[in-house]
Amino acid sequence: MVGGAVAVQSIGPAAAAETTLRAAAAKAGLFFGVAASPNRLYPIVGQEFNQLTPENVMKPDTLATSSGGLQNTSGADTLVNHAQSNNMLVRGHTLVWHSQAGALQGASQATLNTFIGNAINRWGSKIAYWDVVNEALEDNNTGRRRNQWPHTMNRDANGDGDYFDSGDTDVIRDSFIRAKQVVQAGGFTTKLCINDYDVEGLTVQGGTPNRKANALYDIVRNYRQYIDCVGFQSHFNDNPNSIISSDLQANIQRFADLGVEVHITELDIDDDLSNNDIGSGQAENYRKVVRACLNVAKCTGITVWGISDSESWRSSERGLLFTGGNGSYQKKAAYTAVLDELNKGRTVSTSSVPTSSVPTSSVPTSSVPTSSVPTSSVPTSSVPTSSVPTSSVPTSSVPTGGGCSASVSVNAWTGGFVVSVRVTAGASTINGWNVRLTLPSGATVTNAWSANRSANSGTVQFTNVSYNGRVNAGQYTEFGFQGTGTATGLTPVCTAS
Ligand code: G3I
């Protein structure tokens, strides 16, 4: 769609409610998956879920030899075959990780690259998503990379505090470049993801900015041409950095606005979140997480980290959707809440359907750096009090022939909003853009991404940043902003330069 009005797509409520998680999710346009082991492939796996993540058997400590070859692939094969015969997607988990590295512990980038090639090629397009890099960022909300292998290979050549510059070495960048090369050379449909925990909200407990989420955002923004998807692990518990914050949806949205798919990859929710910012009922907490994903079109999947509480890695938290075990399971209130929420479907703008103007086709044969981009700014206050959207109000400017047009999609809640803006080039490629819009009285922008802004209220001009000014004819790029107040009646006007 070039410059036309954006239609609001309301999927659901369904005429007849679906009775399994996978059917309800499919109707809403996302997958609902589970982490599984070869010895727990009970009927429920294929009945309730349409995506499968190997909980352990696709990790390097199982799969990798010290030279980057493959070994012990039978467990992974069992899971992949089971997924195929049950019409389930597979998420490969995981290629580069400081933990469970096995024989790869301490390996060079060259050896990691060998392993990446072997693993991706073995299953090809049978793997819909690969977690290429897992848990690259430090704990305790420092916003730093981990200081243990493989990240000890990183070099900040110019000492500016990041690894994004031309002379820098970055294991994240180099692993993704390798993975992308392999996918392209093989003609696979596999999408390449970065996955981490404690990155779910814009803020952590008490409204402190989530520096780990911001660091992940900067990585995705810098390496967008290699990264197709972002995983928020979503192990929610009483840790102040692991809570369900009310700005979960806004954070999903800001990543989605970079053009990547967002997935909730390892969901479990402690059944007693006494420190949780937004309440302690497990079923209600599940509902909030599912709703936050449903409200962002590019949030295309949710995976729970196991079937039942007793078989979970954190059984004491009783964090999953079923009780029971060994193939005999009972649905919990959390299950019913998730099913009900999925059956309500999405209410989102079609303007957010996954496609992107960001080139993904040209992968360098060597480690080509990308430019340094300033770290993102996230609001330190004005955290929304409710994540429930009240509207999705797209509008559009008039197409400007050879110039550009812009359309907006608004997710609003009581007292706040997130606006996604799509800039579409007309008949000619543009090399820069300016989007002007006027906010209603009382509305204030608190945070913007993928654009510079001239003001926080009234008439605001947004201009491209270094990496998204060029938009090919007929293609688009997107930016977004978050604010307080209301954001009704926005009419963006786009000027190309
Ligand atoms: O299978 C052996 C068993 O034979 C042995 O008797 C037993 C003794 O400890 O260990 C068993 O292996 C355990 C394995 O899980 C299977 O249950 C390992 O010790 C144990 O370390 C391993 O834990 C896994 C953990 O990753 C390791 O880091 C969990 O199952 C798995 O759920 C967890 O998954 C991670 C994700 O990959 C990344 N995100 C966090 C998530 C939870 O930690």
UniProtKB/TrEMBL annotation:
What are the residue boundaries of the GH10 domain, all occurrences included? 15-341
> Keyword set for this entry?
Carbohydrate metabolism, Glycosidase, Hydrolase, Polysaccharide degradation, Signal, Xylan degradation
Start and end residues of each CBM2 domain = 397-497
Look at the named UniProt entry and state the broad enzyme category this protein falls under: hydrolase
Q: Which Pfam families match?
A: CBM_2, Glyco_hydro_10
Residue intervals passing through the bilayer: none
Q: Does the keyword Phosphoprotein apply?
A: no
Q: Which Gene3D superfamilies match?
A: 2.60.40.290, Glycosidases
EC annotation?
3.2.1.8
Report the catalytic activity.
Endohydrolysis of (1->4)-beta-D-xylosidic linkages in xylans
Query: Which residues are named in the active-site annotation?
Result: 266 (nucleophile)
User: Which regions are flagged for Low complexity bias?
Assistant: 347-399
Q: Which PROSITE patterns match?
A: CBM2, GH10_1, GH10_2
Identify the stretch(es) annotated as Disordered.
Answer: 346-399
The organism's place on the tree of life at top rank:
Bacteria
Give the matching PANTHER family: BETA-XYLANASE (PTHR31490:SF88), GLYCOSYL HYDROLASE (PTHR31490)
What family does the entry list?
Belongs to the glycosyl hydrolase 10 (cellulase F) family.
Q: Which named protein is this?
A: Beta-xylanase
Organism annotation: Luedemannella flava
